[in-house]
Write a structure and sequence with these properties.
3-stranded antiparallel beta sheet; about 5% strand; single chain; about 70% helix; mainly alpha
């Protein structure tokens, strides 16, 4: 039997789930709008964000993070290299590996499109106190880890042939 507290908590969790889904959708739609504006794929924009946030990585690491096949990752890197947003560099630790790194000086056009969002978020977050920011940061880190893990498992199943084309 559910108590009033249980019902209130479930309602709050449902509300948080709704808001997180909306945030995800709005973020995805924003990336799509940026991609359309510069004549790129949304995956290209998201990959550039990964490289800018996490730093240079091998094509294999990029494939793993994006969930793309190695062939699709190569085509993605080719597209980004062609427009000057990334470069392939030899890995200093293992010369057989290639590291993909962003070419920051060529990213001004993309950065300018994201700047209004960056400014608005900085203004919003500046109104929070340190404790609120700490709680949100920890929540987002945990959320990102969960989503990345579930995404990797789903992609592994699809690439293994399980569940392709079925719901």
């Amino acid at each position: 039997m559910s108590t009033t507290r249980d019902v209130i908590r479930r309602t709050k969790i449902d509300e948080l789930m709704r808001e997180m889904r909306l945030m995800s959708s709005f973020d995805s739609l924003f990336s799509q709008a940026v991609a359309e504006r510069v004549g790129m794929h949304q995956t290209d924009i998201e990959t550039m964000d990964l490289l800018n946030t996490l730093g240079p990585m091998t094509a294999g690491e990029l494939s793993q993070r994006t969930g793309l096949t190695s062939g699709a990752t190569t085509r993605l890197i080719d597209r980004l290299e062609r427009v000057g947003f990334v470069r392939r560099c030899a890995d200093e630790a293992d010369r057989r590996c290639v590291v993909i790194e962003p070419v920051h000086e060529n990213l001004e056009k993309l950065g300018a499109l994201f700047q209004p969002m960056v400014d608005a978020m900085a203004e919003l977050w500046s109104k929070l106190d340190d404790h609120e920011l700490d709680v949100i940061i920890e929540f987002v880190r945990r959320n990102n880890a969960v989503v990345a893990d579930i995404n990797a498992r789903m992609r592994a199943q699809v690439h293994a042939g399980a569940g392709e084309g079925s719901l």
